[in-house]
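Shipment paperwork, digital attachment
Item: protein structure file
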Amino acid sequence: NYPLVLEYQQKSLKIFEEIGDKKGIAQSLNNTGRIYQIQKNYPLALEYHQKSLKIYEETGDKRGQASALDGLANIAQKQKDYPKSIEYAQRSLQIAQEIKAPNEIKNASETLYNTYKLKGDYVKALEYHELYKTTNDSLFNADKAKKIANLEVQAKIERKDKEIQLLNKDKELDKQKQQVLQKDLQLQRIE
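Attachment content:
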């Protein structure tokens, strides 16, 4: 439901502008550019990505710059302007590698792979496909390791909860045994 998504992006953009949050403004602009890109409204997509890039550059947000540049590269690719696509994607990749941002490296290398493939330069396409695949696999493995670690922590917490429940039940049983013993003692005294 892209019209609704655009409406929410415009609302968030307005709020970020009211509070003077430049990073939020740039993110909203970049997100809006991606929506227009999906809708194949490339002139508007370019406009929003360029505005976003300008703010990211002003604020020194390297991750945002890499993202906006990749958006511009994708639009140029769709318009079959392969030299421009490669230029933007190379800049995106360079920044992403500089700040060691694996997700942005993955995105830029995928864009370069697709652009070179469309251009017919299969040697370069293979080079960037290998970088994309390696980075994507690393991200997948890191995500998988994180999920496994979370599951292990969750299992440990559940074990501890069960131990606590058993201890509480043991205490309750001990308490009941004490009460039975006290009643038995009282009955013995009466007899």
